[in-house]
Amino acid sequence: MAKQTTHTILMIEPVAFGFNQQTAVNNYFQQRDYDTDLDIQSHALAEFNKMVAELRAKGVTTLVVKDTEQPHTPDSIFPNNWISFHEGGQAVLYPMFAKNRRNERRNDIIQRIENEGTVINNVDDFTFWEEQNLFLEGTGSMVFDRINKIAYAALSERTDKSVFLQFCKIFGFKPVYFTANQSVDGKRLPVYHTNVMMCVAAEFAVICSDCIDNDSEREKVIHALEKTGKKIISISEEQMHCFAGNMLQVENHEGKLLLVMSQSAFDSLDEQQIKQLELYNELIVVPIPTIERVGGGSVRCMMAEVF
To answer: In the list 22, 129, 169, 171, which could disulfide-bond 98, CB 3.0-4.6 Å?
Structure first.
């Protein structure tokens, strides 16, 4: 039986983390008004190291690979967008919207994963879609219910329907796609990645269903979650903007389930939501304010699950 969670994750240590102009065109979580006098890289590195230490202390195998200074990749701290790993020794490389993010794909990282004992029998390469300006950014674009073989995707500039459907056909996932929007300066604009508005765990799902403006699409997503027996924990759009949807359930080597979230996400939750989440797993809360503010991504984006 397929597993939803893994005890091994890949993280990329940043060497030149910073604001990425190329991603800011459609990532409305990135904030331009950060303190320009701040040493962004040193703050991000400190937050990264603290998160790694916390995961390792809880018994999660955390493989850390250091980024390279050249070529410059300001978003390398978010590896889940360019690669995913699957049971049976499968890995997938993905087409990326921002040209400077495509340099994050490194064969030596895949080799490192193999050297650590993970068998990779095949690497499926979807990057040719970049030539057609069509994109699918890994487990940012898709949120997997690995147990029930369902892939959820909020369509956007970074998540193309045709590429998504091809992925699902090849890997045997049932596709559930929809449009998710957020309010930006009085306009409803697409949420850049599915994993900022929903998280699927073994027995529950966290979702900002308010982002799905179309009634029938919202009902379709909720029905798919309920049909698979997931307890739905709803979050507001305001909580989503605090990265409350960007959580990831992992496990330690004893099989204990852990839910990783940022401090800003935790602080946005109410008492009832926290109690609901604690019924299913221990919460790991890590403060990463610089990474969230400048990079526009949170803890889930920083972890590529290794199966």
So the answer is: 22
